[in-house]
DNA sequence: AGCACGCCGACT
DNA sequence: GTCGGCGTGCTC
């Protein structure tokens, strides 16, 4: 029986997800599978004997060729110490991508079959069950590639691709009319007698009229009708669907402007050609469009065309917060075929959306990060919106970059890749074919950006900036520091307040009345006097958003990570007739405010002076994004909106380009600078952080590691202590990504396994932020 | 990860 | 003497 199942038959198709997800598989030794499992077991015994004799276990396929009988399984555990894969007997009908339950030591674990083999040098056990869920082979390849690419483990990457464990299908009772009530002859004619010849009360008649449907409070009444044979009731899977904000009636396609038309045309041509053999980079595009230029409409129409060609699409947005609005737009045009995946969904919702995609019931997935792992087949289009956003980098263990994964999936499936931004990354500008949307869809003007020199200015806001804020009806003010004061210092002896776990100063939060560490969450009471000298004059330094909000004139709205009801603040500001929105980075993301007439960057130097080769890029993005958010139409007078940038480096290249809205000029120069300095994208940086509670051991481990890393590795460089662990950093700048990553992986693994590595935390980051 | 095995300090 | 600390190694 097993011999007739061709390899790939089971794992390659989305099997019925209906009998439940993980954990509810068919147990190999279970009741109605008994016959199958018995033959399996008998054959296993024989197979074991042959393996012991040095032969490969053989199975006969219909065309009499030998087929693999060994499954190489990656047990799903997080530990780095488990170095798979492990060999098991291949159960009937399984293939690469099948998910099995395996005996592993004395535990039972889930595992994914990542490879088949004909023989094994081990004594093999059989998996104890085959689960209903399986991964398409493409996603197995993705996990294996990703594990190497980001120096993580295969198991951790595989786990990312699977639906959540421990939730099954939701089962509810479904009722239908039956017997004499099966057909309602009066369905078309409201005056005719209903259910003729059947004795019914008015209540029962109403009950029958609402069927078919799910049972509820009326189950008892329905059961009585079931008893008379007028109704059937049976358990059925009742999929959970995430809530979606409605966006009115299904909307038609708006008229595109010429730029948009051209963009859609180019993507359509690429879609037509995709799947063939386009040249390198032929089907990878950068949609470079200013804020409000109508990028989303281009995405939508491209997705529509991909669907029409029988292919599927992924649409990535940077954050969960931006998902609902995008989903709503796609849904209002494309309907039920739009699924959504993100970590904010309940386990059940995620499971059900995963299966809708796996079975092909949904053919588009919209959302952040995890959407890039959607189990669709026939992928035709991958869209990454706001591609410059660093939220696309995961900062947990598989430190993957969703943009890189998106590019991999597009390449692997012959799909078209489209990344969009008003402020693209130099890497994308350099590598992708550019499509421009240079005009705002509403024809509005870009705001005037002015650099304000604050050298020698002792106040927080320069006089004109303060005046502009007083005059403006609505304004947004950006400052990238949370809290009231970022550090405290005794005026008499210079004592400062630092975190006991980290080598950083504690931040005063006045609203919550605490000193807080922004790196580990440590909290303590603010001092009344200096513990070193007893002085009561404690100076507050470093202005944060909380204090800034207090200084500003008029009605102030504050938005940062410390604010509890963030969407409420946004909404109130949006609806307000006048006021100032103050906050960190997050105020410049996503939502735009058409009636804001002034944007202010309080301290552009904070970003600019950050010691990192990307600081210029980030500064340009910060200013340009704020300019994009601020007013389309300007004030009530229709005056042009403006952006004021406070800086002590008004000659800075990034700032000057941003002030002229000249992304092109900035990117050309920035790329040239990076080429000369050998920075990405012309090289790859690999950073290894060694952390240990004991400083000497952190240092020693880093030194040993450095010896095993490729030539030219810099370090160990001490980095400030965090969460009680001393840190040492190694940095490698390499010309060739693949070999550098492989070498670092080997070095790290050689150190992780050795004695003396106890308590050592190693984090590898390729192309760190 | 989870679990057993094993080798040293200190407690019934 | 043995109880238990965790350092080490193994799981197909
Ligand atoms: Zn003091
Ligand atoms: Zn801390």
CATH homologous superfamily placement of the largest domain:
P-loop containing nucleotide triphosphate hydrolases
- Summarize model confidence as the mean pLDDT: 86
Number of strands: 33
Percentage of residues in strands? 15-25%
Query: What is the name of the CATH topology of the largest domain?
Result: Rossmann fold
Tally the helices.
20
Ligands, ions, cofactors: zinc ion
What's the story with the biggest beta sheet? 7 strands, parallel
What is the general shape?
globular
Q: Give the strand line-up of the largest sheet.
A: 14-15-13-16-17-12-18
How does CATH name the architecture of the largest domain? 3-Layer(aba) Sandwich
| Rg from Cα | 31 Å
Q: Segments where pLDDT lies below 50 for 5+ residues?
A: 1-64
Structural key phrases:
DNA-binding, alpha/beta, GIY-YIG endonuclease, binds zinc ion, 5 domains, 769 residues, 6-stranded antiparallel sheet, 23% strand
């Amino acid at each position: 029986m097993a011999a007739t199942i061709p390899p790939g038959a089971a794992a390659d198709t989305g099997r019925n997800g209906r009998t439940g997800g993980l954990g509810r598989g068919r147990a190999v030794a279970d009741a109605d599978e008994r016959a199958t499992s018995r033959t399996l077991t008998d054959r296993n015994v024989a197979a074991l004997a042959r393996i012991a004799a040095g032969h490969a276990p053989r199975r006969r396929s219909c065309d009499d060729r030998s087929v693999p009988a060994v499954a190489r399984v990656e047990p799903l555990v997080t530990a780095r110490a488990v170095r798979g894969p492990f060999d098991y007997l291949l159960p009937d009908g399984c293939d690469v991508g099948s998910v099995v339950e395996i005996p592993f030591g004395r535990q039972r674990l889930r595992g994914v079959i990542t490879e088949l083999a004909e023989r094994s040098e081990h004594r093999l056990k059989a998996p104890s069950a085959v689960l209903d869920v399986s991964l398409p082979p493409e996603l197995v390849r993705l996990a294996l590639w990703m594990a190497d690419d980001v120096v993580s483990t295969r198991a951790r990457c595989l786990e990312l691709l699977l639906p959540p464990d421990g939730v099954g299908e939701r089962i509810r009772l479904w009722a239908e009319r039956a017997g004499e009530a099966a057909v309602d002859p009066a369905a078309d004619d409201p005056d005719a007698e209903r259910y003729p010849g059947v004795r019914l009360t008015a209540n029962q008649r109403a009950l029958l009229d609402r069927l078919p449907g799910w049972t509820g409070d009326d189950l008892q009444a329905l059961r009585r009708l079931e008893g008379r044979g007028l109704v059937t009731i049976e358990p059925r899977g009742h999929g959970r669907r995430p809530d979606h904000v409605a966006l009115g009636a299904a909307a038609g396609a708006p008229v595109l402007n010429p730029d948009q038309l051209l963009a859609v045309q180019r993507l359509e041509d690429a879609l037509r050609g995709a799947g063939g053999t386009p040249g390198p980079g032929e089907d990878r595009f950068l949609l470079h469009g200013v804020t409000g230029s109508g990028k989303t409409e281009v995405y939508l129409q491209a997705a529509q065309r991909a669907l029409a060609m029988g292919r599927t699409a992924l649409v990535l947005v940077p954050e969960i917060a931006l998902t609902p609005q995008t989903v709503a737009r796609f849904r209002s045009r494309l309907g039920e075929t739009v699924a959504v995946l993100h970590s904010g969904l309940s386990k059940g919702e995620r499971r059900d959306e995963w299966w809708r995609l796996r079975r092909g019931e949904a053919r588009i997935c919209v959302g952040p990060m995890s959407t890039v792992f959607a189990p669709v087949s026939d992928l035709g289009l991958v869209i990454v919106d706001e591609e410059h956003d660093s939220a696309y980098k995961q900062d947990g263990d598989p430190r993957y970059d969703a943009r890189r994964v998106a590019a991999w999936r597009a390449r692997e499936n012959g799909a078209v890749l489209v990344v969009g931004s008003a402020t693209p990354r130099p890497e994308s500008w350099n590598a992708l074919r550019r499509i421009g949307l240079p005009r705002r869809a509403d024809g509005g003007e870009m705001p005037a950006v002015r650099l304000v020199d604050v050298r020698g200015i002792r106040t927080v806001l320069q006089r004109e900036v303060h005046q502009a804020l007083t005059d403006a009806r609505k304004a947004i003010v950006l400052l990238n520091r949370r809290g009231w004061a970022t550090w405290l210092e005794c005026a008499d002896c210079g004592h400062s307040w630092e975190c006991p776990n980290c080598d950083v100063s504690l931040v005063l939060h006045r609203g919550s009345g605490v000193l807080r560490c922004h790196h580990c969450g440590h909290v303590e009471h603010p001092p009344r006097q200096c513990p070193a000298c007893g002085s009561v004059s404690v100076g507050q330094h470093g202005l944060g958003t909380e204090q800034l909000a207090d200084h500003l004139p008029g009605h102030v709205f504050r938005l940062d990570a410390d604010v509890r009801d963030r969407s409420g603040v946004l909404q109130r500001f949006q609806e307000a007739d006048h006021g100032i929105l103050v906050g960190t980075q997050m105020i410049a993301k996503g939502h735009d405010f058409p009636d804001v007439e002034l944007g202010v960057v309080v301290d552009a130097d904070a970003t600019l002076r950050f010691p990192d080769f990307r600081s210029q890029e980030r500064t340009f993005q910060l200013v340009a994004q704020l300019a994009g958010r601020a007013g389309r139409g300007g004030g009530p007078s229709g005056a042009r909106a403006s952006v004021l940038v406070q800086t002590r480096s008004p000659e800075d290249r990034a700032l000057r380009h941003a002030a002229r809205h000249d992304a092109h000029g900035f990117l050309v120069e920035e790329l040239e600078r990076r080429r000369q300095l050998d920075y990405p994208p012309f090289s790859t940086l690999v950073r290894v952080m060694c952390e240990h509670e004991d400083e000497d051991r952190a240092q020693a481990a880093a030194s040993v590691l450095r010896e095993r890393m490729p030539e030219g590795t810099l370090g160990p460089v001490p980095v400030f202590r965090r969460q009680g662990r001393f840190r040492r950093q190694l940095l490698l700048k390499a010309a060739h990504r693949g070999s550098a990553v492989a070498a670092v992986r080997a070095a790290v693994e050689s150190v992780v396994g050795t004695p003396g590595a106890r308590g050592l935390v190693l984090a590898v980051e390729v192309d760190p932020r």
